[in-house]
Amino acid sequence: MLQQQPFSGHVFLFRGRRGDIVKCLWFDGDGLCLFAKRLEKGRFIWPSPADGVVAISAAQLAYMLDGIDWRNPRRSWRPSAAG
């Protein structure tokens, strides 16, 4: 159960079991919006929640959605040398 107010203006993130898909849910004033993203390579680096809830900054969210380790900004995968 979410146990939070979905109309608060916060962005709620949910990660898929394998870690390669993330869904964002937020209220934009008119209704609830859903954004989903799946990484072709790598996994989303997910914070470890203490009580089931984690607060991250907008910059950390941007890194996460780009597949970059927001704790130490680097790509979570490396392109192969062969191309």
Notes on the structure:
The protein has a domain at 12-65. Strands 1-2-3 form a three-stranded antiparallel β-sheet, with no helix packed on it. The protein is mainly beta and 83 residues long. The protein is built from one helix and three strands, in the order βββα. A hairpin with a 4-residue loop joins β2 and β3. It has one helix at residues 58-65, and strands at 12-15, 21-27, 32-38. The longest helix is centred in the C-terminal third of the chain and has 8 residues, at 58-65. The mean pLDDT is 81.
Write the layout of secondary structure elements.
Blueprint lengths: L11 E4 L5 E7 L4 E7 L19 H8 L18
Antiparallel strand pairs: 1-2, 2-3
> Number of DSSP helices?
1
The helical percent reads under 10%
Structural class: mainly beta
**pLDDT averaged over residues:** 81
- Strands side by side in the biggest sheet: 1-2-3
Q: What is the approximate shape?
A: elongated
What is the end-to-end distance?
44 Å
Rg over CA atoms, rounded to whole Å, is 14 Å
Listing every helix as H and every strand as E from the N terminus to the C terminus, the arrangement reads EEEH
Give a quick account of the main beta sheet: strands, pairing sense, barrel closure: 3 strands, antiparallel
User: Stretches where pLDDT falls below 50 for ≥5 residues?
Assistant: none
Counting DSSP E segments of at least 2 residues, the number of strands comes to 3
Strand content: 15-25%
